[in-house]
Design a protein that fits this description.
This protein is of the alpha/beta class. The protein has two domains: 191 residues, NAD(P)-binding Rossmann-like Domain (Rossmann fold, 3-Layer(aba) Sandwich); 195 residues, Dihydrodipicolinate Reductase, domain 2. The chain is built from 14 helices and 18 strands. Helix 2 links the parallel strand 2 and strand 3. It is globular, with a radius of gyration of 20 Å.
């Protein structure tokens, strides 16, 4: 049915490629392209071994629009699945417009020199995509992504109005390393060390990084864990699209060990994003740190335990107050057995494949730039249950 081009051969790109290959009725031809072609080739070899399917690979610099356009025009996919880094979102969107193909990603654009992620840069493409008759789907990972769809499902089926939303992301897995990040270290540390921000009665309230915490008792044997308030990009679109929302917050669990390492690294300047001169060379401390830390993809065989990510919501239905919790539990070892990756890459890569599936099968296809909660949650929720990320609703 559809020929797709996946860009980015990291932890997430590997899962997207494996999951697309597992779905041959929809994804008939697949190309995986990235900066380092040997990583694409290693993923292609794993796919051949696990599914028997052959996918194409290519080298591309996704910062370079003409190079991207040339690759897209040569391969002729119907859409590009962007799972490179957030810095490449705009160049890939530009290339998709120029080559006339649809676009999807899992993280919003972030300029390299400012640790600030916002949708404004990508929302500015709305008219261009509409005029070209093309679709851009933003943030089809887990959070953003599935969390937006959970909220849309709750708004459609469980509530007349959602007043309070708490998105809670718990990684109760253990990789046994002194310090490592579960996805791209640079993006992860920029996100975690940024100021916290939440929505309350029509405005954003800012908090110091990791200064607010609560303990939440997670289901499925995970138990109580300390969670920290952070800003997360899906809040920006959800507060615009959820009817009657009064407060929206995002929480993530971190171990004491992770926080101690982060504090020391921050204190000595290793998480900085400003270049410093060292022996005649410009070095960005966080990029150097990223090189020293374990590659997130290498954590796959080491990580044990589960993740639990979901939305806790309070609101009204038929004039009565009610609350609901929608969540998914994912097991690191089961993910590794299936596709050779840990659960953080898996919980991002599976929704990326489903988002692409929603587009190419026509269920979600419409011109313009869209966030996940603006589209019908039902077919996406159905696929989550079928493709490895089953969900639970507790009312
Ligand atoms: P990785 O760092 O593991 O992988 C990124 C890949 O992109 C690498 O293969 C890298 O190439 C490639 N890349 C980087 N720059 C370029 C470029 N200029 N041209 C071509 N390829 C490039 O990251 P992850 O797989 O962990 O994350 C991928 C994306 O998923 C990120 O945007 C991240 O923010 C997002 N994400 C979203 C989540 C969600 O729930 N929504 C959760 C987790 C991640 P090379 O191998 O040469 O370095």
């Amino acid at each position: 049915m559809a020929r797709v081009l996946i860009i980015g051969a990291g932890g997430v790109g590997s899962v997207v490629a494996h999951k697309c290959a597992q779905n041959p009725e929809v994804f008939t031809e697949i190309m995986l392209a990235s900066r380092t072609v040997s990583k694409c080739d290693a993923i292609a070899a794993s796919i051949k071994e696990r599914t028997g399917r052959i996918i194409e690979t290519a080298r591309v610099n996704a910062d370079d629009v003409p190079e991207l356009v040339a690759l897209i025009k040569r391969y002729k996919p119907v859409m590009v699945i962007n799972v490179a880094l957030p810095y490449q979102d705009l160049t890939i969107m530009d290339a998709c417009l120029e080559a006339g193909v649809h676009y999807m990603d899992t993280a919003n654009y972030e300029p390299l020199d400012v640790a600030k992620f916002e949708y404004k840069w990508q929302w500015a493409y709305q008219q261009k995509f509409k005029d070209a008759g093309l679709m851009a789907l933003l943030g089809s990972g887990f959070d953003p992504g599935v969390t937006n769809v959970f909220a849309a499902y709750a708004q459609k089926h469980l509530f007349d109005e959602i007043h309070v939303l708490d998105i809670i992301d718990c990684n109760a897995g253990d990789h046994g390393q002194p310090f490592a990040t579960n996805f791209n270290p640079e993006i992860n540390i920029r996100e975690v060390t940024a100021k916290g921000r939440y929505w309350e009665r029509g405005e954003w309230v800012e908090t110091d990084p990791l200064s607010w915490s609560m303990t939440y008792d997670f289901p499925d044997g995970i138990g109580p864990k300390k969670c920290f308030l952070m800003y997360h990009e899906e809040l920006e679109s959800l507060v615009q699209n959820l009817k009657g929302i009064r407060r929206a917050r995002f929480w993530m669990t971190f171990s004491e060990n992770y926080l101690n390492h982060l504090k020391v690294l921050g204190n000595v300047g290793m998480t900085g994003i400003e270049p410093v001169e060292f022996q005649g060379q410009q070095i960005v401390p966080i990029q150097f740190l990223g090189k020293l830390l374990p590659d997130p993809a290498s954590l796959g065989p080491l990580t044990k335990g589960k993740t639990c990510i979901g939305c806790v919501m309070k609101g009204v239905k038929d004039g009565k107050e009610k609350s609901a919790y929608i969540y998914n539990i994912c097991d690191h070892e089961a993910c590794y057995a299936e596709v050779g990756s840990q659960a953080i890459s898996y919980t991002t890569g599976v929704p990326a494949m489903i988002g692409a599936m929603m587009m190419v099968t026509g269920k979600w296809m419409q011109p313009g730039v869209w966030n996940m909660e603006q589209l019908d949650p039902d077919p996406f929720m159905e696929q989550l249950n079928l493709r490895g990320l089953p969900w639970v609703v507790q009312e």
